[in-house]
TrEMBL record, chain A:
GO terms for molecular function: catalytic activity; iron-sulfur cluster binding. InterPro entries: CHP03960_rSAM, Elp3/MiaA/NifB-like_rSAM, Radical_SAM_N2, rSAM, rSAM_horseshoe, rSAM_sf. It comes from the Bacteria. Residues 255-493 form the Radical SAM core domain. Pfam families: Radical_SAM (PF04055), Radical_SAM_N2 (PF19864). This is TIGR03960 family B12-binding radical SAM protein. It comes from Metallumcola ferriviriculae.
From TrEMBL, chain B:
Residues 3-187 form the DUF2344 domain. It comes from the Bacteria. InterPro entries: DUF2344. This is TIGR03936 family radical SAM-associated protein.
Amino acid sequence: MRQYIQEKILPHVLKPTRYLGNEWNVVKKEWEEAKVTMAFAFPDVYEIGMSHLGLHILYGLVNNRSEFLMERVFAPWVDMEEQLRRHKIPLFTLESYRALGDFHVLGFTLQYEMSYTNILNMLDLAGIPLKSADRQEGPLVIGGGPCALNPEPLAPFFDCFLLGDSEEMLLQLLEITARHLNEDGKFDREALLGELSLVSGIYVPGFYQLRYKPDGTIGSVDPAKEEVPPRVQRRIVQNLDEAYFPTKPLVPYMEIVHDRMMLEVMRGCTRGCRFCQAGMVYRPVRERKKDTLLKQAEELVQNTGHEEISLTSLSTADYSCVQPLTKELLNRYQDGGINVALPSLRVDAFSVDLAAEIQRVRKSGLTFAPEAGSQRMRNVINKNVTEEDLLGAVTAAFRAGWTNIKLYFMLGLPGETNDDLAAIADLAKKVLDIGRQELMAQRGRPNITVSVSSFVPKGHTPFQFEGQNPVEELRAKQQFLRGQLKGRGLKFKWHEAKLSFLEAVFARGGRKLAPVLENAWKSGCRFDSWDEHFDYAKWQTAFENAAIDPEFYANRPFDYQEVLPWDHLDAGVSKAYLIREHKRAMEEALTHDCRWDECTGCSICDRFQVENRLWGDEINVD
Amino acid sequence: MLIRMEFAKGAPLKFLSHLDLMRTFQRIFRRAALPLAYSQGFNPHPKIAFSPALPVGAASQCEYLDVELDAQMSGDEILTRMNRQLPEGLEIKKIKEVSQPADALNAIINRAEYTVYFQTKLSEAEVAQYLEELLKREEIIIEKRSKKGIKKKNIRPGIYKLNCQQETAGMCIDMVVQTGSDGNVRPEQILDFLRNECNLAITEARITRTGLYVYADGHYKTPLEVVA
């Protein structure tokens, strides 16, 4: 099979390297010796999927167990899809070129809503029935990752979802699956799901009955069986320092999005930005010790040969040992030509100075995310950043030799006025002026890129109750900013408003959207997050055919009392806390960070027996 | 010290681009913990230089690279360390320590030899006839697509030898063509010409580079033979 594909098919696709599957550190196991076989599926292209840390963690975790086997599959690009369909070859994994249908478990990672049509396409290419109810045999189809916390639009297509840190329960799921396999490797789906539904963190959507009110909102969500829990709790790795980390990750041949070593310095963030789903659903803050990270770095350097170490987290400057860690990494590896990179910069001079200290290469530019232009709006979203912070940060950056600065903002935030919008342009111009002054002596020219996305309300955040601005309004706001941000040294980037609208529909929507998804896929939607493939007309038809009004999900404010599609999935922060934070937003009141201050009452530590775990003895707050 | 190596790039890696291969070697050297010499300046990078790029989709029995080390290390030691880090499809065949300053591989290599296997209904004699006619031409004009549009190029001066032989694996053409910084002829260009101009049905072509040479004064020498 491998030879057939490599001789007959790969010469005809644009990037054959995507499908080789013989990368350094690849794990190829004897199929017959594995008790349970699993395929990890990333519903986007190789370059994006291989940059995802979660893949490397689970790949190592599962393959370290002799009785289990995990292989990988990514969404085939359209040229490869065409070849597979023409040659009638079912979608296969990269390690063994085996059809997905041959595996016991097929796990999709759900990273963003706009990858959902690719999931259906991959199931179809594999010859697996799309709906759980139609699968007499074939793999158990499971999903994990952030979108598993509101997976309802995908509910009929999946057998179960893993909520939270998958490394906490995936092995357990495979062990249970192993027990359910009969001699010829088949299992009784209903019986297996019955047992899985009792495992904390595993959600079986088919075991819940939904009732709707006449107005289309949810009346109730009830377990269809006695023993099924009414709410499913997210699973949390409590001690990240002792958790498994892959130090022999796959090293790709082709250039991928994040082509470097990844050190996960911490997980979670408690700054409490009210729009940010990651900040809400990855709590509490769990750090790794400096020495643990140094040891992992040493192994990564030996096992990969990469030229850069990236310190990943939601906000690396907040890691309590960031300075001693970076210093030590530089001491050890600088002479070997290995860089250290900080992918996420905080908006303050401390972060810039740190970056200047460690990054010898200044060509790439720096990115800051003030998110809103006016102080009022930044208070609404609880982004604890002042104008002074930002101007201080960019001054430090220009002085340290950077000329390219990228600024991230959101438009359409709750309660946004024209003044708030105009403030985005004003702030960008202030940054440009500082750049001109600071770079005059060096004869450099500042380049400011203002990248503005449209606010998308997400489940499990204080802004889940907020409707998104209608598409026309988003477009008008984009046009306004476009007019304001003209001239030398300024570049304005924005996102397609209709795509943000769709994202909001699926982020806030429920099970009734499943037929829409299926219609859209049938009419040819794939790679919706890729500009060249996004076709809103097809989506519009899909909504019409399913008799669904998308604005009901995207633009309608949700009442505090309304039962939301994800209310029966417990991400850790209580609804009472989200309501309280939403009210505080309307009052423009700030909420502090519970890492360095008292508890803010999100309820996770009490209810889940977890806590913020920091190792440093000093706090890097300016 | 400067090290010149001859290596093979086998079928499992034939789809790697030149850039992919360069990155792969950088990582092999790092994993092997060789004492690499780095360039001076703001953004130091290891000093590694390669022979002319191999077309994507082709395998090779003999590619070359120069790597500079800033500490002494025996060829055996280098080989032992590298072999532990080589992915399936790469093989280091020869290693030579270069004592005198050497000209860049890309500047001195000017001839490449390829064998091309393909499926055809024609007999050996018929294919030979076509090749003979091809070599009689003054001009073989092909169209090159570049970023600036389509350019016409005469590849006839860069073709030095075309022989064919029927073998069990299919029809085989052995070719010697120009390569390097002064000009480059790719086997695929010759095949395309045979397909388009001579209506030759050529399918499933498998291309292997079998030699890279420095041609001067009527002699072919390998890049390892020209350095002391």
